[in-house]
Amino acid sequence: MNPTNDSHKPNWLLRGLILFSVGVHLLPLMQMTHLSRPRNISRIELTMKQISSPFQRQIPKPRPRFKSLVDPDEQIVAGALGERHTPMKPLQYAMPAPIDPDRLMGKNQIPRIPVVEDTDVAEWQDEPEVSSGSVPSVAERRVMTEGVYTDLIQKKIEALKQYPKRAQRRNDQGVVKIVFTIGNNGEIVSARIIKSSGSRILDRAAMDAVKKASPFASPPNGSIIIQLPIKFELL
User: Fold this and answer.
1) Is there a contact between 171 and 198 (Cβ–Cβ < 8 Å)?
2) Is the overall model pTM greater than 0.85, yes or no?
3) What is the spatial distance between Cα 14 and Cα 10, in angstroms, rounded to a whole number?
4) Structural domain harbouring 190
5) Could you say which of 117, 144, 180, 219 would form a disulfide bridge with 191 (CB–CB 3.0 to 4.6 Å)?
């Protein structure tokens, strides 16, 4: 063998030993670095809450009792000796003297009312009533108007009006309009029905009332024509 060629060939055994040695030393180092890495640390968070104190019933404090100003020993002695409190005498009030009203009035006295003797007093006498059928005087004729005269005529006729019983049983009702002429002496010159009530009985009763009321007072301005409604109504 050529010694020069052997010296240039790599020594594989030596290299293998070196690699093995390096691997043996690196393995513990790798384990140590793995253990030295920080792990995930679990944390517990605590929060502070304000907790209200439980309800406590407030009991009022008893009022302080005032001590008696009298020594209890003195009270015992006073009770043993039988001391008694003397009652107070009632107060007496003096009543004022009565006041004379005449003295208070003085000069400003109320004047006396003079007494008047009985005197003759004229008595009132009512004037005699004049019936509607009587003849009025000349002065009354001047004052009386046709409207007032017509009212007097209607009142006299209504006072003498009679509701026939036969018409009442038949429940007949209505208004009869009559036109009549009164002469200068108050007598009825003529009379006729211008509107019927629908019942012959009521029409006849209305005409009878006008005839019974005649004669009337004399008209103020001579003869007059009057138109009046005469009503028959069941209540």
Assistant:
1) no
2) no
3) 9
4) 138-232
5) 180
